[in-house]
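User:
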Amino acid sequence: MVEVGHMILVGLGEMYLTQGDGRVLVARCLGSSAAVAVHDPQTGVAGLLHWMLPASSIDPSRAERNPYLFIDTGLPRFLDSAVKRGARRAELTACLAGGAALPDGGEYDVGSRNRDEALKILAREGLVIRQEETGGTVVRELSLEMGPGQFAVRSLNL
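Assistant: Predicted structure:
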């Protein structure tokens, strides 16, 4: 993470959680990678996870070193950490962004797989997805204004 003024930039393979904070969390350059932001309006717990790949089974030792690079290991840990900070799963709302197709993505289609795996885990965990902007060939940026829990996704012209 990098702090720039009132923003906290959450990099690839990173997550950030806080409570009652007035700053803005941002994940940039979401191509095939993706990010999910969560917010509990009652407790003020908010966070963002930025991951790269859908399945830790492709590199278990790397997933052990950094579970946040993979959605299947990162998202459950991220949500558990949010609950430990005081969030209630039933109150968490989420915004999902990224998961675009890369022009040279070939047969692996990492972006779609990132999106599908995230949706599956979020549904299993019972989270309400308030906003989703995924797929296509657009590079995006996801931000969460932590205090009010306002999500924003914008397309980047790269």
